[in-house]
C-alpha cells in the first residue's frame, strides 16, 4: 500500500479539493512538538538506533497490546521480564512474529504511522507480511546504520523546530545539559513531570520525596520545604528551557485546602501512609499547588487524567508498568476542577491544557469549560484517540462550543521517534479534512480555513506552549 | 461571506439535491416558537431597539463567554457589575472590540446566526472585522431607527405564528396583558417557570414563597396552600394563553413522597433551611407535583436539567447569573425520572418534553424512554447543542429508537430576537440534510421525507405544544 | 418503497462502488447466527406460522413499544394481559392498527427489517399503510399457509448454516432433542442462559434453585452442589451442541469472593433473602464462577449488561416482562469486570464476548479492554443499537483501538424469525460501507477490505463461537 497523496481527505471531490489546497500550504510547516516522550539521551549521544524490532515493536505499547490481545505473549516479543526469566532475544524472530500479525492493525492508526515511516524514511512501499518480513528487516537494518538515520539528522530531516521531552521531577536533566553543551542547534526542552513526588501511590514515593527535598538543599521533609523543593526544581527545569509541566492523575480531582490542613495531609501520606481517599486528596491538592506555581513561574500546566493504570495485575507483576494494560474510565471535570478553577481559572496569564480519555467530556464538559475560563485550553485527542476518527470527533464535538482558539494544536505524545512526522501528518490531514467540510458546507470561507490550518499546525502550539 | 443558498446541506450532489428540494418546500413555513426568552415588553411597547452592541453583544452569553475565554473582560464589553463600578459605556467601542475578536467564532453557531441576521435583515454581506466595524455599526444603527425594525414589524417579517416567552411564577404578566389589550394580532404567550418558588437554592426563595402564596389570596404558608397557589397561578397563566410550563433543575431527579412527608419537607425548606439533599429532594418532589397538575390543566411540561449553574464564583460575585459560566454535567434520566413516570408516564393526555446537556443520554436513555412512555417527548438539542453538528447528532442518535414523532420540532430558546429566523433556518436545513441522507441511502422515500420536513418544521411543535 | 440494491451504501460514487463490490462477494455467504431467541419448537414441529399480526406485531417489542409511545394500548394490539381480561383477538384488526401507524417507524431499523421481509419473502414491494393493510394481510396469510413458509424450509431458504437459541438453565431441551431425533440436517444449538438460577431477583428464584440442584441428581441445596449442578447442566447443554452461555445482568459487576464467603452469600440469598447489595454481589460472583467453568468446558461466555428491566411497574403488573419497558443505563466495565479479569482475563483459551447498551463504553472502555485482554472480544451493537447508524458508530468508535479481530461479527439476537435475513443483510451492508470508506480514504487496500468483509460476515462468528 503506497502512501496515497489524498489519504485521510474527504471522499467527495468538492471538499477533497479544498482539503488538498489547504494541506498543500501546511504540509511542510515545521514540527512543533510540545509534549512527548522521546529520550533526551538520543539527541545527546546521537548514536544509531538498533534493529527494527527494538525500534518499532518492543517499545510501542500500541503494538504489543494488540498482539497480546490475540494470544501472542510478551515474552515472544522480547519484552524484559522483571524476574529476569529469558525472553526472545532475536530481533529478527520478533520482527517476523510482528509481520505475521500485521493484519491485526487494519483500521488502526498504528497501521498509518508505520506505513508512513516505512515508505517515507526507508522507501518501503510494500505491505508488511510474513512473506517480506525478512527483506524489510534487512532493508531497515541497513539504513539504520547510516549517518542520516542518527537522531540529530532525523531531527533536521523531520523539520522539527522544537521538541519537548517528559522528565521526572527527580531527573538531573544531564542529557539536556549535554545537548546544550554540544553546541547542536536542535531545540530539545524538558517538561516537569512530578508524578514520582506528588502521587503517594507511585512506587518509592516516601524515598522519592525525601530525595526531592534534600536535592533542593533543604533538610526537614516538611510541607513548606516540599513546596519549596518544587519551586527550586521548576526553576531548574525552566533554566534548561522547560515551558510546561505535566500531570498524569487517576482523576481530574483538585482541592484547595488551607495550608495547615495541606501540611497535615502531607504528614499523613509522606511516609506511605494515608487512606486511598487521603492519597487521592493529596494528588488533588498538588494539582492546585502546581497551578499556583504556574501562575508565578509561567509553566504551562498539562493535566492528563482518567487512566486506570496497571489494570492487569498478573501482567504488572511480570513486566511492570506501561505494558498496554492502562484502561480509560469515566472522568468528571466539572466538579473535579472547580476548587482549582475557583482559585486560578480567571487568570488569563495562566494556561492549563486539559486532556481526556473520556470522549463524552468533549462536548459536555471540556468545550464549555474551555469556552469560558481564560486559563483553560483543550489539548488534542490523546492516546487511544490520537487517530483519524478520534481527531475528527474531537473537532466535531468541541468546535461549536469552544471554537478553534481554545485548542492548542497537536501533541504527538510519543516515544516512537520515527513516527513523529507520520503523526503530525495525520493531524494536519484531519484538520484540513474537517475545515474542508466547513468550507464546503459554506460555514467558513476558504481564506479563513487556510489561516486556521496554519494556526492549528503551527501557530497555536507555539503560542499555547510559549515556544 | 455571503449567505450561500446551499449552506449546511450535504456536500454530495445527490443528497444535496434532495435537501434543496425538501428545504424549498419548508423554508417559508411560519415560525412556531414554543420556548424562548424574548422580552414580552418589546412586543407591548414596540419601541426601537438600541444600538448594535446592546442588541447583539451585551445580552448574548454565547458571545461574551467566548470573548471572556480569550482574555476580554466583561467590563470591556459593557456588562453591568453588581457593585456599580464603571464599565465600558460606549456601544461603538464595545462593537469594535467584538469585531476585532469575531474570528474566534469560526466554526460556531454564533457565526451562522449573526451572519444570517446581518445579511438578511441589514443587507450586510461582508465578513465582520476590525476594518469594517465602524461602517457595520453605523449601518445597523441607522436601520434600527426605522419603523420596520420595531419588534412587531419584525414579528411579521419573521413570519412568526406564535411565540412563547418564559415568565417567573411571580410575574404579573403585565406586558402580556398590554399586548393583548393593544389589539395587535401577534400571538405572544407566557410560559409558567416556577424556579423562584420551587428551588430552595434560588435567591430569595423564602420571600418568594411567601409572596407567591399571598399573591394567590391565601394566608398561611402551608404545603396545601403552596400547592393551591401553583394551581391558581397556572390558571392565571393559562388564561393569558400559556400552554406550557418550564423547569430548569440541576438534575432530572423526581420524587413521589406521600403528602404528609412532602408537607414536612416543605416546612423544612420554606424558610431557607434544609440540607443540600433535602433541597434537592424538594425540587424532585415539585417536578412530580407539576406533572400531576399538568395532567389536570393540560400545560405541557418542559424539563431542562443538568446545568451546573454559576460555576465561577468570582464572576458570579461580580456580575450575577447567566454570565456564560453554566457548565453541563453528566445527567441520569432512567432512575431520576422513575418516581414521576411511575405516576404519570403512561398517560397519553400528558406531554412532558425532556431536554439534555448530556448528549450521551440521547441514545442510551432519552430515545428509549420517549420510545416507550406515552407521556414523554424529546425536546430539540439545547443550548451548547443548538448547532448544526449538535442537531445532526441528535437525529442520528435518537431517531433509530424513538423515531421522529416522539420529538417536538425546534425551540429557538433565545433572547436574541433578531437571531430567531436564523436559528429556525439552521434547524430546518439540518433536518433536511438528515432526511436527504436517509433518502439517498434508500432508507426513506422522498415523499415521506417531505412530509417529515414539514412536520419537524411546523406540525410537530404546534401539536406537541398545543398551539 | 422497493428494496433498492444500493440501500445503506455510502452516497458518494467512489465508496459506493467499493461497497457494491465488497457486498457482491459476501451477500450470499451462509448465515451464522450464534445468538438469538427463536423458538426451538418451531424447528422441531415445523408447523406453519399463523397470521401476520401474530407473526410480525404481537411478539415484537420494537414494534409495540413505538405504538405504545404514541398512545396505542397493548390491549388493542392483542397482547395478553396477566389478569386474563379480554384483549383484541382479531389479527386483521391488529394488523390494520399497525398499518395505520406504520409511518411512525420512518428512520428506524424496524422499517428496514419489515420491508425487507415483505419484499423478499412475500413479494410485497408497496409501502404499508391503511389503504393496503387488508390486501397485504391477505397476501401474507395466503403464503404463510404454503409449505415453503414452514420453519425448516425457511431455514434452508435463508441460507442458515447454524443458529443458536437461548435456553433457560432449567430447560430440558426437549425441542432440541426432537430436532436432532428428526434427522433434519439443520443445525440448531442451545445456549446456556442461567438467569433464573443465578439472579436472586428473578421470579421464583428459590424454587428455581431447588429444582435446579435436584435436577442434577443432588440432594442438599448447598453452594458446592449448586455449582456442581451448573457443571452438570452445562455438560447437558454441550452434549446437545451448545457452544456458549449467555448472561443478562443489570450491571457488568463481577466478584471473586473466596469460596467460604461465596457459600455464605449463597446461603443468604438462596431462599429469597439478602439485601439489594447482597443480591447484586451474588450475581457478580456468579459471573466469575461461570467464567471459571467456561475456562474448563470451553463454553463461550456472553455478557449482556446494563438494562434497567421492567422500568414501568404499571405495565409490568398488567402484562409482565419484555413489554418494551427495559431502558439502558450508564454501565461501567473497567472496574466492574476487574475481579473476573484478574482471574481469567489473560487466558487465550477462554472467550468472553462483551455487549453494551451504553455506547459511551465503546471507545472509552470496551475497545481498550478487548484490545488488551486475550480472553475478551466485543459483541456487535445490541438491541437499540442493532441499526444502521448504531452499527456504523460501533465500527467508528471501536476499530481504531481494538481492530476488527477483537470483534465477533454479527448477532441477530431476535425472536422474529422472518427478519433474520434482513438483519444480517443490514449488518453486511454497513460493514461494507464502513470498509469502503476506509478504502476510499486510502487507509486500507481493497483486497484487505474484502478479506475483512468475509471475516466479519462469516469467519469471525464461526471462530469466536466455535461453530
UniProtKB/TrEMBL annotation, chains A, B, C:
Pathway terms, separated by semicolons: Carbohydrate metabolism; pentose and glucuronate interconversion
GO BP annotations listed: D-galacturonate catabolic process; D-glucuronate catabolic process
Gene Ontology molecular functions: glucuronate isomerase activity
Enzyme class name: isomerase
Keyword Repeat: no
Family statement drawn from the similarity comment of this UniProt entry: Belongs to the metallo-dependent hydrolases superfamily. Uronate isomerase family.
HAMAP family according to UniProt: UxaC
Protein name: Uronate isomerase
Amino acid at each position: 500500500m503506497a502512501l496515497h497523496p489524498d489519504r485521510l481527505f474527504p471522499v467527495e471531490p468538492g471538499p477533497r479539493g479544498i482539503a488538498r489546497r489547504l494541506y498543500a500550504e501546511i504540509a511542510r510547516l515545521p514540527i512543533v512538538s510540545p509534549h512527548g516522550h522521546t529520550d533526551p539521551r538520543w539527541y545527546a549521544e546521537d548514536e544509531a538506533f538498533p534493529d527494527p524490532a527494538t525500534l518499532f515493536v518492543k517499545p510501542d505499547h500500541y503494538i504489543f497490546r494488540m498482539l497480546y490481545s490475540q494470544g501472542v505473549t510478551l515474552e515472544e516479543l522480547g519484552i524484559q521480564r522483571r524476574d529476569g526469566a529469558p525472553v526472545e532475544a532475536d530481533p529478527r524472530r520478533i520482527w517476523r512474529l510482528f509481520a505475521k500479525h500485521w493484519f491485526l492493525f487494519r483500521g488502526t492508526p498504528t497501521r498509518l504511522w508505520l506505513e508512513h515511516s516505512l515508505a517515507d524514511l526507508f522507501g518501503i512501499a510494500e505491505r508488511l507480511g510474513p512473506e517480506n518480513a525478512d527483506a524489510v528487516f534487512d532493508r531497515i537494518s541497513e539504513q539504520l546504520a547510516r549517518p542520516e538515520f542518527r537522531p540529530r539528522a532525523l531531527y533536521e530531516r523531520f523539520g522539527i523546530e522544537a521538541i519537548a521531552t517528559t522528565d521526572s521531577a527527580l531527573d538531573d536533566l544531564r542529557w539536556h545539559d549535554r545537548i546544550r553543551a554540544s553546541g547542536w542547534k536542535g531545540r530539545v526542552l524538558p517538561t516537569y513531570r512530578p508524578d514520582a513526588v506528588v502521587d503517594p501511590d507511585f512506587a518509592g514515593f516516601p524515598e522519592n520525596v525525601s530525595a526531592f527535598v534534600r536535592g533542593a538543599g533543604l533538610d526537614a521533609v516538611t510541607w513548606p520545604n516540599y513546596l519549596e523543593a518544587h519551586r527550586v526544581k521548576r526553576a531548574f527545569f525552566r533554566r534548561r528551557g522547560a515551558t510546561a509541566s505535566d500531570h498524569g492523575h487517576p482523576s481530574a480531582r483538585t482541592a484547595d485546602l488551607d495550608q495547615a490542613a495541606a501540611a497535615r495531609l502531607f504528614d499523613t501520606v509522606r511516609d506511605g501512609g494515608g487512606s486511598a481517599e487521603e492519597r487521592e486528596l493529596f494528588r488533588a491538592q498538588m494539582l492546585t499547588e502546581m497551578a499556583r506555581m504556574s501562575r508565578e513561574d509561567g509553566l504551562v500546566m498539562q493535566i492528563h487524567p482518567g487512566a486506570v493504570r496497571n489494570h492487569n495485575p498478573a501482567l504488572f507483576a511480570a513486566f511492570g508498568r506501561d505494558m498496554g494494560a492502562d484502561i480509560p474510565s469515566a472522568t468528571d471535570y466539572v466538579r473535579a476542577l472547580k476548587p482549582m478553577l475557583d482559585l486560578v481559572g480567571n487568570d488569563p496569564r495562566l494556561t492549563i491544557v486539559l486532556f481526556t480519555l473520556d470522549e463524552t467530556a468533549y462536548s459536555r464538559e471540556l468545550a464549555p469549560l474551555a469556552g469560558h475560563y481564560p486559563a483553560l485550553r483543550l489539548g488534542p485527542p490523546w492516546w487511544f484517540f490520537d487517530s483519524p476518527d478520534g481527531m475528527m470527533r474531537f473537532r466535531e464535538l468541541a468546535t461549536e462550543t469552544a471554537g478553534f482558539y481554545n485548542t492548542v494544536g497537536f501533541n504527538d505524545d510519543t516515544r516512537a521517534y520515527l513516527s513523529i512526522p507520520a503523526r503530525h501528518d495525520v493531524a494536519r490531514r484531519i484538520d484540513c479534512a474537517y475545515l474542508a467540510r466547513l468550507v464546503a458546507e459554506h460555514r467558513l470561507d476558504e481564506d479563513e480555513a487556510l489561516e486556521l490550518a496554519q494556526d492549528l499546525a503551527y501557530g497555536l502550539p507555539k503560542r499555547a506552549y510559549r515556544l
